[in-house]
Each structure stands twice: as structure tokens, then as C-alpha cells.
Design a protein that fits this description.
alpha/beta; TIM Barrel; seven-stranded parallel β-sheet; globular
Length: about 300
């Protein structure tokens, strides 16, 4: 009789059980990373309610085997990057910190695109300073600003790359057409689009990334909590596996594609440990088909 609970890998740090991916063919990262947006204050603005806990979260993430941390200059703004440096610098070997530029923050929960070359140059310099880095491994254009020619925005990042301030370039919240156009200007190694169990609107982009071997970094991988509660469409399966809905949703994401790099974020160590435990869930083909049907209905 087949056991309903997925098999569990052993003898590795928990996050390592999610597998690895080569970003740009030279940055080897754990497929389950950490998104550092939530270590800021309410509205992604200002200091977190508990800075010491935020520092513990980052240090615990590394202890659990995570070596891929995603942030942005606009998270806080500046606060997330500053806390990452305080918690982890000097950085352990192999740790990849990705950051983003392209937004202005006039206030809590307010986001204004700014792709002007002078802003992007200033944003990159600020991130280098706050993260205490000489070069950013992965720098992502947070949005392609429709008010500024894409060639100017991507050309600025290409210049920063030529100057040795950026190693690799990624995009965020883009269409296939935008990715293809961007790749005529500068090499692109990753795409960060919204994607989750209840939101598969970027399915075509995911398939494109898989075909081209670009890292696909789903933001809001838990749909801002919509898949984590008792009313979650996957709560029944989670109960069968003695797992949480969040863990099942993350395991489902990891099983979707070898280029999938989920970055669930949190400001609590307990929640971090729960998320990372999802890497130990290995979903068989039968359960995957059932989850896919539920995801299609939920999305």
C-alpha cells in the first residue's frame, strides 16, 4: 500500500533538500531561498517591529542551508538591505544576495516606478553601500518603467555590469515579449514574477524560463497567506501529509519546474523553519496531478 505522506530526504541541511540551480551558469543557489521584504515595518516601510528577531531570521536562514536571499532598495526603503548586512556581513562563502532597483517609495504601501538612468545608477550605488559589497551578484530591474525607454533602463544596468558593479542582471514582473526584447540589449539570467498555487498568470513566462534555463523567482509564492489558513484549498492534503498548507504549496512550487526558485519571506524564526521544512516534502506523480487540478480550480 502506498503511503500518503511524501518521502523525506535525510542527511542534508533542510533547505539543501530543495535542490540547487545555477543562476547565470555560475551562481549555485538553493532552490528554496528567502525573500527579505517582510523584515521591514508595516507597509514595507521603516523599521521592523522586532529588529533583533529579523536578524535572527536571517542568521537562521543561513544555518538551515539557504544561500539565496532576495531583497530590494525599496524595502523599507533601505531597511532590508541594512539589516541583511548587519546580520550576515562578512558574508559566508557561497551566499548570493540579489537586490533590485527601479521604484521610489513616497510612503507606506506606495510604489512609484522610476527607471531613469540617474535613479538606477544611484539605487545600485546605494545597495552596494548598504550591503557592504563591491559587486552585486544579481541585480534586478524591479519594473520596466513605461515612461522611460527600456533601452535606457537596461543600457544603464549593462553599463553598471561593465563597470564591475553588477555580475548578473534579472527582470521583475515582465511579459515574454519584454524578456525577449531585454535579451537583445543585455544578457538576462532570471525573472521574478508573481506566481503561486492560486495565481498561475505567469505560466507562459515560467515555461519560457524553463526552455531558456533562466531562473524563475515567484514573488508572493504563498499568495500573501491565502494558501496557508484552514480555508486553504489544499488543507485536506496538508492534513493527510501531517504538513501545513504553506509547506504543501511550496513543495508544489518546487515540483513545477527545475528553474523554480521560491523565496517565501517572514519576520519570525518559527515561520521560517516551517517554510524551509517544505523542502523535505517530495510529491509523487499522483499527488502532483491532484494538486495541479486543485491549483487550476483555485487560479
Amino acid at each position: 500500500m502506498q503511503n500518503d505522506k511524501p518521502s523525506v530526504q535525510r542527511n542534508k541541511p533542510p533547505a539543501k533538500k530543495s535542490g540547487e540551480f545555477l543562476i547565470g551558469n555560475d551562481l549555485r543557489v538553493t532552490r528554496l531561498g528567502f525573500g527579505a521584504m517582510r523584515i521591514t515595518g508595516e507597509g514595507i516601510w521603516g523599521e521592523p517591529a522586532d529588529r533583533a528577531e529579523a536578524i535572527r531570521v536571517l542568521r537562521r536562514a543561513v544555518e538551515l542551508g539557504i544561500n539565496f536571499i532576495d531583497t530590494a532598495d525599496s524595502y523599507g526603503p533601505s531597511v532590508s538591505e541594512e539589516i541583511i548586512a548587519e546580520a550576515l556581513h562578512p558574508y559566508p562563502a557561497g551566499l548570493v544576495i540579489a537586490t533590485k532597483g527601479g521604484f521610489m517609495r513616497p510612503g507606506p504601501n506606495q510604489w512609484v516606478e522610476n527607471g531613469k538612468p540617474e535613479h538606477l545608477r544611484s539605487a545600485c550605488e546605494g545597495s552596494l553601500r548598504r550591503l557592504r559589497l563591491e559587486r552585486i551578484d544579481l541585480y534586478q530591474l524591479h519594473r520596466i518603467d513605461p515612461k522611460v525607454p527600456a533601452e535606457d533602463q537596461l543600457g544603464t544596468l549593462k553599463d553598471l555590469q561593465a563597470q564591475g558593479k553588477i555580475k548578473h542582471i534579472g527582470l521583475s514582473e515582465v511579459s515574454m515579449r519584454q524578456i525577449e526584447h531585454a535579451r537583445t540589449i543585455v544578457p538576462i539570467v532570471s525573472v521574478q514574477n508573481r506566481y503561486s498555487f492560486t495565481d498561475r498568470g505567469s505560466e507562459d513566462v515560467l515555461k519560457y524560463c524553463e526552455k531558456e534555463n533562466l531562473g524563475f523567482i515567484p514573488w508572493f509564492p504563498l499568495a500573501a497567506g491565502r494558501v496557508s489558513g484552514s480555508e486553504s484549498p489544499i488543507s485536506r492534503i496538508a492534513a493527510q501529509w501531517k504538513a501545513t498548507p504553506s509547506q504543501v504549496a511550496l513543495a508544489w512550487l518546487l515540483a513545477q519546474s527545475p528553474v523554480m526558485l521560491p523565496i517565501p519571506g517572514t519576520s519570525k524564526v518559527k515561520h521560517l523553519e516551517e517554510n524551509v521544512a517544505a523542502a523535505e516534502l517530495k510529491v509523487d506523480a499522483k499527488k502532483m496531478q491532484e494538486l495541479d487540478r486543485m491549483a487550476a480550480a483555485a487560479g
